[in-house]
Automatic annotation (TrEMBL), chain A:
Region (Disordered): 596-625
Signal peptide span: none
Pfam families to which the protein is assigned, alphabetical: GerA
GO terms classed as biological process: spore germination
Keywords on record: Membrane, Transmembrane, Transmembrane helix
Comp. bias intervals (Basic residues): 603-612
Protein name: Spore germination protein B1
UniProtKB/TrEMBL annotation, chain B:
UniProt protein name: Spore germination protein YndE
InterPro entries: Spore_GerAB (IPR004761)
GO terms (BP aspect): spore germination
Intracellular or extracellular location(s): Membrane
Keywords of the record: Membrane, Transmembrane, Transmembrane helix, Transport
Gene3D superfamilies reported in the protein's UniProt record: Amino acid/polyamine transporter I
Topology of the protein relative to the lipid bilayer: Multi-pass membrane protein
Transmembrane segments: 12-34, 40-63, 84-105, 117-138, 145-164, 184-204, 216-239, 269-294, 306-329, 335-356
Pfam families membership: Spore_permease
GO CC terms, sorted: membrane
Lineage: unclassified sequences, metagenomes, ecological metagenomes
UniProtKB/TrEMBL annotation, chain C:
Spore germination GerAC-like C-terminal domain boundaries: 243-408
Family membership noted in the UniProt record: Belongs to the GerABKC lipoprotein family.
PROSITE patterns referenced in this protein's UniProt entry, alphabetically: PROKAR_LIPOPROTEIN
GO cellular component assignments: membrane
Originating organism: bioreactor metagenome
Localization per Swiss-Prot or TrEMBL: Membrane
Record's keyword terms, sorted: Germination, Lipoprotein, Membrane, Palmitate, Signal
The protein's name in its UniProt record: Spore germination protein B3
Bilayer topology: Lipid-anchor
Domain Spore germination protein N-terminal: 24-191
GO biological processes: spore germination
Length: 625, 366, 421
């Protein structure tokens, strides 16, 4: 090689520059609009007709060849005078007869025009296998397991067990499905077809739930929810056997709505676990669970629960009507479902109570509300709710009145501060300096003397910083979250003051506002107020307290004209209904004689006028006096 | 029909009457009563309140005999033309009231809260807020006012209580003021300011029964009368006749004067919220009532398209008077003449017609 | 929804195009804490003094320099002065925190009716402002000499000292609202606090003759004798609040001394709990000090018969003995009765002297005119009379009762033992 000197480097450099050629790379991937993106579902494919015709012919051909094979066999058997062979052939014939019905050209062409999901289960196992393969995109899709086996006995029958890997419990399949079927040798009777299936389902399978299915829709539903499906040659039906065993989180301690007192169970993702939790806390036959699937492409199970003898039947019907009438692809969260069914989706205030606590759900169910659950969401929503419900926490009733009331008042003060404090601060220092005590006015003025920004900018800057800290604390993984909060709040604030970017008073105002906003027990209400706060800020900074008054007025009118599932939002004070002693402050538990008036429950009274009957009776040990 | 008002109970009715009648407290009227009544000025709102309650309760009796709202009752008793005249009269009354309230509260704002703001901006702001507020319907307005009412009443009482150290009880002497023979007629004439409370008669079908309306009339007007008496009393106890009658904004002056210690003083700014809310609600409800009557008269399916048009119209009228003194003089003239027709004249005619008709009805039956 | 969006957009547009509607940043504002008014040397003009706070001096870090700044300008009116100040001070003046209005004596004698109008009409002023008359001096001088050492902000000084007025009752605390209502009502004469700078002319102190019955000297503001070194102009604060300025209609017509002010306070129910020094009724030349307060509210009454007013006052005092100079056992019941009677007599005498003095000024400082209203049926009848005239000719009847309830921490006095008695 030539020595690396400056000259050679220069020469190479120039050569490279003059003779540069881009490296040969394949064309980069671009996600283009696909041609058949739109048409597939809704427009008939031109090729489709040919394909189905081919399939028709194919199955008829198959039937014909099978028939021919059987005839050959029968000929051989008859020739040999082999009785057992003849019997076997006779049985095969029966199966073929069963299958023959399907091969009728009209039925066949009708069948093949249907989408695979809409077809009925065929008596031929290979046809079923083909449909399953089509349904589940086998062999690309690796989740589906198809296990072929033979049910032994005097007349061995081909059978096939299908299940989705990951959703099933392998133990259950091995022990209570495959084992009894494969070791089955007492099939004395010669039964086949539907009878065989009934016999297997009724007498053979030691599984807790097993039912017969004739349509692929049922088959697919079963498979999707973790059941196994058994096809048997010659039987135009399938057995759907309960073998659910997917991994899910069990109930844990509440993470968001923590409490000192009260039950410590929170919902998990699995729907059945959740309904079970509620039912285990409310052990009554009165509790009804209705399940409706929502989502057209990917149905998700949505349940709603209510107490039959309490809840207003119109309310239940309305909830059902709204959930039933959603037409969408997929709903993966209750929060999404909520937006589909609530009264005012554009208003930021929550119109359902979302809770992860089982005890909260049960207490509201007992008042006559309806609980909505969705598979995969560890929360339960309750309807209808009033604005004041969001200020209640689960343990308000578990502790005594003075403490419960005190906490509620603190929350309410926190809410008011969180909404109007920054706006009122700006309004006062911009327009109504006289409202402050002189020393305070001078102190604020003195502190702001070195700050080069307008006060409104300062407040918005700090609000933004606070929102950043909050969001960062929420998004950052695990342990770092709390650190971010401390680092952000302490260091950022201190540094900003020292750098004369903001005045200390602004830091205090924003810190109090932020702290106050955490006292709002409901996360969604608190986010709604967080958004509103900026509106208040704008009006306060431009119109002073007149602006704050206008903002308050608009919010109160908005709240008063809202409805949550037909119930006015500001009940029980706007409109005024019969007092329930549970609005801002709560009354003693033994005076809560009526259910909330606005719910118009079937049964208004929940306890008699004197619920503590013992106070009217002689004390223990003194009965004889 | 979206202008339908929905159901209202006693609470909603009280809130409705409170909304219509309370601006009295925040405007110059209490200064005018003191000018008229001196030491006995507090009798004036009392007399007006009682007169209003009597007329309103009398009307509820008519309604219990002839069910329906004001318009249908008038059609039954006075004929189609009579009903139209009455309805148009009340349209005029509510729009007049809207204009007066709009102008006076806008002036109020300019005078006290935001001295550097453009006048037309304030007027447009108030009418815009009132329009937004009535857009969803009456229910929301009435309910939210009912929620705010306890706070505004207690704030009002608080100001009067905080002023106790500056009271001079001798300011009520001589106790007859300018003479009872003068004070009571003035009180009866001032009752016109409460003519807006006939809104409950106009909205009669929204109430459950005539009994409900009677309760609303007594409690609602009673409450606002008590508050007016209390403010006028507090005002004259604090300022005395000579100073009190000079003031344009009695309530503001009262709040300004609070000085309990180094820390409890200068609180008038906090009460801006109170009177802005009261003013906007009063404006909104008068605006709504006028529109409601128009919609009812012309049998329109909804009032919503009318809101911005009429709103701009009202704002323009409100900006017409050249100065605040003209407005105050017009306010006085309208209250003593036009508004009194609505309080005394029309109800008397209706009651007379009702009793006549009933007698005739009984006569034919016998 | 679209309409709502349009409406809200329109509101937003209105808000933004019109700017900030007069909102002011804190560093655009200068807070005037004290306002002084004087008659100018130029005919018909006013000397207006503004004392403004300097907020930077209050932050703690750079707490150097004066916390306040005073400027005096000559103008036609206070409002004109405010505009002139705008050319002198960079910031916008804000008068909403003005705590006191200080008026020089010469302006007060000329009449305040014209000057006060703006204070009632302009929205930044309020009735709670205190009104102070400078005894024999100008407001400008008073403001420049008054340098409170304890309070950081000068407004705090004025507020504190005027809120403590009832502690000694040597000076009243009068706000603009009281002053103005009295001026307009015709039932009482306006009064104001008298303030002054100590040692301006010390020879004036002796100009008030000491009455033989008085056991304590009478002073007006600026006349309190101070220690020798304290006349040094540098060290202490030389401002004093003492006595009352008495007005007839809107003109200053006379002054009440500290003792007279206290008598007025008794009649006006403003006595909190001051010390009274009374001559010993038994031992000449010795004093008894008592801590007296009003046991009941003073009752004032006025009857008018044939244009002759008869004024009545009923006073009930309760007290505690603080010191007995002579050592006589006034704790004993018989002596106590004697002492009570003596106190009542002394105070009654002092009150009558004070009232007669004001009758001479034709100024009803106590406000007998208010109860006098009950003699009339209607307000118009009352307005027909000239109360000041009736007052100056009225008969006055004052009854004073005194009870000594407590004797302090001692309940008897032992004589001083010694051979020379």
């Amino acid at each position: 090689m030539v020595g690396n000197n400056v000259l050679s480097d220069l020469v190479y450099f120039l050569k490279n520059m003059l003779l540069y050629q881009p490296p040969r790379l394949p064309r980069p991937f671009v996600l283009n609009e696909t041609v058949d993106d739109k048409g597939q579902d809704y427009l008939p494919d031109a090729k489709q007709g040919l394909e189905t015709a081919a399939q028709e012919l194919d199955s008829q051909l198959k039937y014909a060849s099978e028939l021919r094979a059987l005839m050959e066999k029968a000929q051989v058997a008859i020739n040999n005078q082999d009785l057992s062979r003849v019997r076997e052939v006779a049985k095969k014939l029966k199966i073929l007869e069963e299958q023959e019905r399907e091969v009728e050209p009209i039925l066949l062409s009708y069948d093949h025009d249907l989408k695979p999901i809409e077809r009925s289960v065929s008596a031929r196992i290979d046809e079923n296998a083909r449909i399953i393969k089509e349904l589940y995109n086998l062999p690309t899709n690796k989740d589906i397991v198809m296990r072929d086996f033979i049910i032994p006995g005097p007349m061995p029958v081909k059978a096939m067990l299908i299940f989705v890997d990951g959703l099933i419990d392998k133990q259950v399949i091995n022990q209570s499905v495959l084992k009894p079927l494969m070791k089955w040798d007492d099939l004395a009777k010669e039964i086949s077809g539907q009878e065989l299936l009934t016999y297997i389902v009724d007498e053979c399978l030691p599984s807790n739930q097993a039912k017969k299915a004739t349509m692929f829709k049922e088959v697919a539903e079963g498979l999707n929810s973790g059941d196994s499906v058994l096809f048997i040659e010659g039987v135009p039906g399938a057995a759907v056997i309960e073998t659910k065993g997917f991994e899910h989180r069990g109930p844990e301690r509440p993470q968001i709505e923590q409490s000192v007192r009260g039950a410590q169970a929170a919902f998990a993702e699995a729907l059945r676990v959740n309904t079970g939790l509620i039912r285990s806390m409310m052990q009554t036959n009165d509790l009804v669970t209705e399940i409706i699937p929502v989502g057209d492409r990917i149905p998700v199970k949505c349940a709603f629960m209510y107490l039959k003898s309490v809840a207003n039947p119109k309310l239940v019907a309305e909830v059902k009507r709204r959930i039933d009438n959603i037409s969408t692809d997929y709903i993966n969260d209750l929060g999404v479902l909520e937006q589909f069914i609530e009264d005012h989706p554009t208003i930021p205030f929550p119109q359902m109570l979302s809770t992860e606590r089982v005890d909260r759900v049960t207490s509201h169910l007992a008042e006559g509300r309806v609980a909505i659950l969705l598979d995969g969401t560890p929360f339960v929503h309750l309807v209808p709710v009033s604005f004041f419900t969001f200020f209640h926490s689960a343990e308000d009733f578990s502790i005594k009145r003075p403490m419960g009331d005190f906490m509620r008042v603190v929350r309410l003060i926190g809410t008011i501060l969180a909404v109007i404090l920054p706006a009122a601060y700006l309004a006062i220092i911009y327009f109504h300096q006289e409202a402050l005590p002189t020393e305070l006015a001078l102190a604020i003025a003195g502190a702001r003397e070195r700050v080069p920004f307008p006060a409104a900018f300062e407040v918005v800057l700090m609000e933004l910083a606070f929102e950043l800290i909050r969001e960062a604390g929420l998004r950052i993984p695990g342990l770092l979250g709390s650190t971010i909060g401390i680092v952000g709040a302490l260091i950022l604030g201190q540094a900003a003051v020292q750098a004369n970017l903001v005045s200390p008073i602004t830091v205090i105002i924003i810190a109090i506002t932020g702290l106050a906003s955490f006292t709002i027990p409901d996360y969604r209400l608190s986010s709604a107020f967080r958004v509103l706060r900026f509106g208040f800020l704008l009006l306060g900074a431009t119109l002073g307290l007149v602006g704050v008054a206008i903002a308050l007025l608009l919010v109160s009118v908005l709240l008063s004209s809202m409805k949550s599932f037909g119930m006015p939002y500001m009940v029980p004070i706007g409109p005024k209904t019969k007092p329930g002693f549970d609005t801002v402050l709560r009354g003693p538990v033994f005076r809560q004689e009526m259910r909330p008036d606005a719910l118009n429950t079937r049964n208004q009274r929940r306890q008699p006028h004197i619920s503590r009957k013992w106070i009217t009776e002689p004390p223990a040990g003194r009965e004889e006096e | 029909m979206s202008y339908q008002t929905g159901q209202m109970g006693v609470a909603a009715g009280i809130s409705l009457i409170y909304m219509i009648t309370i601006p009295f407290v925040f405007l110059s009227t209490s200064a005018q009563t003191i000018e008229q009544g001196a030491g006995a000025a507090w009798l004036i709102p009392l007399v007006s309140g009682v007169a209003g309650i009597v007329m309103l309760v009398a009307m509820t009796y008519v309604l219990s005999k002839f069910p329906g709202d004001l318009y249908t009752v008038c059609r039954k008793l006075l004929g189609q033309v009579g009903a139209w005249i009455v309805a148009l009269y009340y349209v005029g009354l509510f729009f007049c009231d809207s204009v007066l309230i709009l102008r006076q509260f806008a002036e109020n704002t300019l005078l006290t809260a935001l001295p550097n703001i453009e006048f037309s901006v304030v007027v447009l702001l108030y009418i815009a807020v009132a329009a937004v507020v009535i857009y969803p319907g009456l229910e929301g307005v009435v309910r939210s006012n009912y929620i705010i009412m306890p706070f505004s009443i207690s704030a009002l009482i608080l100001v009067v209580l905080l002023l106790i150290p500056s009271y001079n009880y001798y300011n009520l002497l001589p106790w007859q003021g300018t003479g009872l023979e003068k004070v009571i007629p003035v009180g009866l004439i001032f009752a016109g300011a409460g003519a807006g409370s006939f809104a409950i008669i106009i909205l009669a079908p929204a109430f459950q029964s005539a009994q409900t309306m009677r309760q609303v009339a007594i409690w609602g007007l009673g409450l606002s009368t008590i508050l007016k008496v209390v403010t006028v009393l507090g005002f004259s106890l604090t300022f005395g006749n000579e100073v009190a009658r000079e003031k344009v904004l009695p309530f503001f002056e009262m709040a300004r004067l609070v000085y309990l210690s180094r820390y409890i003083q200068h609180i008038e700014a906090l009460f801006i919220i109170l009177w802005v809310v009261a003013g906007v609600f009063a404006l909104a409800i008068n605006f709504y009532m006028g529109l409601y009557l128009i919609t009812r008269l012309l049998n329109l399916p909804t009032m919503r398209p009318l809101i911005p048009i009429v709103g701009i119209f009202l704002a323009q009228i409100a900006m017409m008077p050249p100065d605040i003194t003209t407005v105050l003089i017009w306010d006085g003239i309208l209250i003593s003449t036009y508004f009194n027709i609505g309080l005394y004249g029309i109800p008397t005619v209706i009651i007379a017609a009702a009793s006549f008709k009933q007698k005739k009805g009984r006569g034919t039956k016998c | 929804m679209l309409r709502l969006a349009i409406v809200s957009l329109m509101i937003l547009a209105a808000v933004f195009t019109a700017g900030c509607f007069g909102g002011q940043e804190t560093d655009d504002i200068a807070y005037v804490l004290v306002m002084g008014l004087d008659k100018s040397k130029q005919e018909g003009k006013l000397d207006v003094t503004y004392q403004m706070a300097i907020p930077r001096a209050l932050t703690g870090e750079g707490a150097s320099g004066e916390p306040a700044l005073s400027i005096t300008l000559t103008a036609e009116s206070t409002s004109e002065a405010r505009d002139l100040f705008n050319s002198v001070v960079a910031r916008t003046l804000n008068l909403s925190h003005t705590k006191v209005l200080i008026i020089g004596e010469s302006l007060a004698r000329q009449g305040l009716g014209e000057v006060l109008g703006v204070f009632m009409r302009f929205r930044e002023f309020r009735g709670g402002m205190k009104i102070i008359i400078v005894n024999d001096d100008t407001a400008q001088n008073f403001i420049s000499k008054n340098k409170p050492k304890m309070e950081l902000v000068v407004s705090r000084y004025y507020e504190t000292i005027l809120l403590s007025a009832d502690q000694s009752s040597y000076f009243p605390s009068v706000n603009l609202h009281d002053f103005y209502s009295r001026m307009k009502s015709g039932s009482a004469a306006p009064i104001a606090v008298l303030a002054g700078i100590s040692g301006k002319d010390s020879e004036q102190a002796s100009s008030i003759p000491k009455k033989p019955s008085d056991s304590v000297d009478d002073y007006l503001a600026g006349q309190i004798p101070r220690g020798e070194e304290e006349t040094d102009k540098e060290k202490p604060n030389l401002a004093e609040f003492l006595g009352t300025a008495v007005f007839r209609e809107d003109k200053l017509v006379g002054k009440l001394t500290n003792q007279e002010t206290r008598m007025m306070a008794i009649l006006r129910n403003n006595l909190q709990n001051p010390f009274f020094t009374i001559d010993d009724p038994l031992v000449a030349g010795k004093h008894i000090v008592l801590n007296l307060r009003l046991g009941r509210n003073t009752k004032l009454d006025a009857d008018i018969h044939n244009d002759q007013a008869k004024l009545k006052g009923e006073i009930f005092l309760e007290g505690e003995i603080s010191s007995i100079g002579s050592g006589v056992s006034y704790e004993r019941e018989d002596y106590r009765k004697l002492l009570e009677e003596h106190i009542s007599q002394t105070i009654k005498q002092d009150i009558l002297t004070m009232l007669h003095k004001t009758q001479g000024m034709r100024a009803d400082v106590v406000g007998f005119g208010y109860p006098a209203r009950k003699n009339f049926r209607t307000y118009n009848e009352f307005m027909q009379i000239d109360w000041a005239d009736l007052y100056s000719k009225a008969d006055i009847d004052v009854t004073v009762k005194t009870r000594i309830r407590r004797t302090g921490l001692m309940w008897k006095t032992s004589p001083i033992n010694g051979s020379d008695n």
